[in-house]
Amino acid sequence: ATPMSVMVGVGKAAELGILIRKGDALQQASKLTTLVLDKTGTITKGRPTVTEIVSLTPYTDAELLTLAASLEQASEHPLAEAIVEFGKSKQVGFKTVDAFQAIPGHGVSGKVDDHALLLGNEKLMTDNGLNIESLASKAKQLAEQGQTPMFMAIDNHLAGIISVSDPIRSDSQAAIKRLHDLGIKVVMLTGDNRLTAQAIAQQAGIDEFHAEVLPEDKAEHVKQLQRLLYKSGHKVGMAGDGINDAPALAQSDVGFAIGTGTDVAIESAEVTLMRSSLHGVADAIELSRATLRNIK
Ligand code: ADP
Ligand code: MG
């Protein structure tokens, strides 16, 4: 590869808001046939908001929100931020949290106002011996709309659901269509539940996805895809934005970090997308192929 044509390619990419850290990434990008996409913040806007609270007697929506928002003050998860923001907008009286614990991939626990709280996915509830049956159909209905329903337990009793919505970016579907037209297989990974993942994948036009993937397992998924392609010389790319995505971005052959994402993601990726759009990935692949054609 002539250094000159690579430099030109890197320059053209920069004009499109695609920052390529190493010239080699352009060469690797021309060999991509599979692209792994994180869901939250990559396909979706990554700005979840609370849409609905469901409370089981004797609890009220207000009680649930007060306790949940107080608890989530201690978490840095985007879902936590959504609940805290909603609590602020409803002017709940925030209380202090004791014994806070984050359970990665599952949720959070802690003590507020002397109540033992659990907030998170179905697995968090069942792992703690709570039966979610009475809320199962409601949770299913919310998840089928692409929302993330989180279950809440108060003092070992199921108390309700707080549901959060994080819509897909307006251009994700079109960008994914372009990637498919370039012959790229697109695979979505998410820690979210299967029904929510399925709804989002469908809205985005993705036919392969893996849900309920634990943060530490994202990189392993990338590695498995690489193993499948090892003999063909084809490469696996990954696009993500979160702290969770950093190991998978580093593992992939070309990592694309969403420019508004976390610093760790940006540092782990070869390419930064300044426009926060998946069109940047399609642009980069097109450009890499054109550049490599000129070299040959
Ligand atoms: P993602 O990055 O896709 O959101 P995570 O692995 O961080 O995936 O989380 C998986 C699931 O665990 C979430 O969908 C949610 O149900 C639950 N969860 C994680 N963090 C929290 C939190 N701070 N509060 C409530 N639920 C949480
Ligand atoms: Mg994300």
Q: How would you describe what is shown here?
A:
The strands form 2 sheets. A 7-stranded mixed sheet has the order 1-13-12-11-2-9-10, sandwiched between helices. A 6-stranded antiparallel sheet has the order 3-8-7-6-5-4. About 45% of the residues lie in helices and about 25% in strands. The mean pLDDT is about 95. The chain folds into 2 domains: about 170 residues, Rossmann fold (3-Layer(aba) Sandwich), CATH 3.40.50.1000; about 120 residues, Calcium-transporting ATPase, cytoplasmic domain N (3-Layer(aba) Sandwich). It is α/β, with parallel strands linked by helices and about 300 residues long. The longest helix is centred in the last third of the chain and has 17 residues. Bound molecules: adenosine-5'-diphosphate and magnesium ion. Adenosine-5'-diphosphate binds next to α3, α5, β5, β6 and β7. It comes from Endozoicomonas elysicola. It is found in: Cell membrane. Belongs to the cation transport ATPase (P-type) (TC 3.A.3) family. Type IB subfamily. This is Copper-exporting P-type ATPase.
CATH superfamily of the largest domain: HAD superfamily/HAD-like
Query: How large a portion of the residues is in β-strands, by DSSP E?
Result: 25-35%
Going by CATH, the architecture of the largest domain would be 3-Layer(aba) Sandwich
Model regions low in confidence, pLDDT < 50 over at least 5 residues: none
Biggest sheet, spatial arrangement of strands = 1-13-12-11-2-9-10
Shape: elongated
Distance between the termini: 8 Å
Q: Mean pLDDT, rounded to whole units?
A: 95
N-to-C series of helices and strands: HEHEHEHHEEEHHEEHEHEHEHEHEH
Structural class: alpha/beta
Tally of discrete structural domains: 2
CATH topology description of the largest domain? Rossmann fold
CATH class category of the largest domain: Alpha Beta
Specify the biggest β-sheet. Answer: 7 strands, mixed
Estimate the helix proportion, in percent: 40-55%
The total of beta strands comes to 13
Count of helices? 13
Protein name: Copper-exporting P-type ATPase
Family: Belongs to the cation transport ATPase (P-type) (TC 3.A.3) family. Type IB subfamily.
Subcellular location: Cell membrane
